[in-house]
From TrEMBL:
It comes from the Bacteria. This is Fis family transcriptional regulator. It comes from Aliarcobacter vitoriensis. PANTHER family: COMPETENCE PROTEIN COMM (PTHR32039:SF7), MAGNESIUM-CHELATASE SUBUNIT CHLI (PTHR32039). Coiled coil: none annotated. Residues 366-457 form the Mg chelatase-related protein C-terminal domain. Residues 159-356 form the Magnesium chelatase ChlI-like catalytic domain. Gene3D superfamilies: 3.30.230.10, P-loop containing nucleotide triphosphate hydrolases (3.40.50.300). It holds the Pfam family Mg_chelatase. GO terms for molecular function: ATP binding.
Length: 459
């Protein structure tokens, strides 16, 4: 860092005084690293004797090349976004590449300087308006509800029209995306489980600007190219992934559960994941957050993802097949099933058993049609004043929004006794029934809505 700053200053005709230079990055107890400090350090050195200059209102971020040009870094966007959310930053000075990303953040002024000389000129001049960057506006389809805009896209890279048969699975997929419900699909290899899972992200609910910025921040922290598309994240770790890569590791590094926030976390071949990873998912699935504790730090991450997984009915996969014979004995099947504990399965909203029949291809439904239904259900939920979609409702909100008619109350009580439903299971049933009611445009949960919800419970 020091060599880059020194080279940039020398190239721009700065003469170092015969003094020792000490740079203080406060507070000292917090570990700091990154090339985004270069520009601020260079300006402090270049302007150390300019006592009249004051630029406390401005934040400077940028990496310096050896010739004094300013570059973008992956950490600038998440840092600026975090400072804006805390109300600490209103004016920022960066290079043009950084400004393009930052322009989507509301309530800040962005000034562009592309080299060190330009930055020095910016500090010294009184006419700073000529450095002001014109902010861009996201150009996607929008819905405005309760004074807030929600964005969505209608380019379906993976379309449900190519999923043959599986009408019940498509219906479950629509419920899953309309209410942010966790989904497990059980079926023989090749019946369409993974195919359906990969299409879910394109029919998810519209995104608020805050959610789009959060997704971009997570992309930057994962060292990926930042985009501002209103398509939610889809993370699909392999079953050989380590526990730290999924839950978070050393130095409180983000894992897959945090990187999939507001999106989908997909586990293919679920029983092949180590049991300690599966059981560790219980907390983020229940509380929608995860605390990563290490010796020197504790970091809390939001985990409001939709958990989607696929599994075979037995080790060989042919137990539900209509054309192949299962080679597993009962002990092997039971051992395979026991890899998933009851407390974990209790956190799953929708459990679907799929067949391998593709004879019924008449009811072809496209992603556009499914997405339209999801958006209508989304509007209904937000119009009720819900901050969260049905799948993430708190216990208090369940009582407020999941209202049953008299006949449905009797059915739910019978189901509780006959199926030995836990308190959590009852809440899951109610939340799924609320989403089904929204898809049917019902103000309260009817008998039909509740029965459909109970049909998706694991038996």
């Amino acid at each position: 860092m020091i060599d880059r700053v020194k080279s940039a200053l020398l190239v721009n005709n700065f003469k170092f005084p015969p003094l020792k230079i000490t740079v203080n990055l406060s507070p000292s107890e917090i570990s700091k690293k990154g090339t985004h400090f270069d520009l601020a350090i260079a300006l402090q050195i270049a302007l150390f004797d300019e006592q009249k200059l004051k630029f406390d209102d401005f934040y400077f971020f940028g990496e310096l090349a050896l010739d004094g040009s300013i570059k973008d870094t992956t950490l600038i966007f998440p840092m600026v976004l975090s400072l804006v959310k805390q109300g600490l930053l209103k004016k920022v000075v960066v290079c043009e590449n950084s400004a393009i990303k930052l322009s989507n953040i509301p309530n800040i002024e962005i000034y562009v300087v592309n080299n060190l000389n330009s930055a020095i000129e910016f500090v010294k001049t009184e006419n700073k308006e000529r450095f002001l960057y014109k902010k861009e506006i996201l150009e996607y389809k929008t819905i405005e509800l309760n004074g807030e805009k929600y964005f969505y896209d209608t380019n379906y890279t993976e379309d449900f029209r190519y999923v043959l048969g599986q009408d019940m699975a498509k219906y479950a997929a629509m419920i899953c995306t309309a209410g942010n419900h966790n989904l497990i699909m059980e079926g023989s290899p090749g019946c369409g489980k993974s195919m359906i899972a990969k299409r879910l992200q394109y029919i998810l609910a519209p995104m608020s600007l805050e959610e789009i910025l959060e997704k971009a921040k997570l992309q930057a922290l994962d060292f990926k190219d930042v985009d501002f598309y209103p398509i939610r994240a889809f993370r699909s770790p392999h079953h050989t992934a380590t526990k730290s890569s999924i839950l978070g590791g050393t130095n409180s590094k983000m894992g897959e559960v945090a990187l999939s926030n507001n999106g989908i976390l997909f586990f293919d071949e679920l029983p092949h994941f180590p049991s300690n990873i599966i059981e560790a998912l219980r907390e983020p699935l229940e509380d929608n957050k995860i605390l990563i504790s290490r010796v020197n730090s504790k970091v809390l991450y939001e985990t409001k993802f939709i958990f989607v997984s696929a599994l075979n009915p037995c080790p060989c996969g042919n137990r539900l097949s209509s054309v192949k014979e299962c080679r597993c004995n009962e002990l092997e099947i039971q051992r395979y099933k026991n890899r998933l504990s009851e407390p974990f399965l209790d956190r799953i909203d929708l459990y679907l058993v799929m067949n391998d029949s593709f004879n019924d291809n008449k009811n072809i439904v496209s992603s556009a049609e499914l997405h339209e239904s999801v958006i209508k259900a989304f509007i209904k939920q937000k119009s009720r004043g819900q901050k969260e979609l049905n799948g993430k409702l708190s216990d208090e909100d369940i009582k407020k929004y999941c209202i049953l008619d008299d006949e449905s109350k009797e059915i739910l009580e019978k189901a509780r006794i006959n199926y030995s439903l836990s308190f959590r299971s009852i809440n899951k049933v109610l939340k799924v029934a609320r989403t089904i009611a929204d898809l049917n445009n019902n103000d309260i949960i009817t008998k039909s809505d509740l029965l459909k919800s109970l049909n998706f419970r694991r038996r």
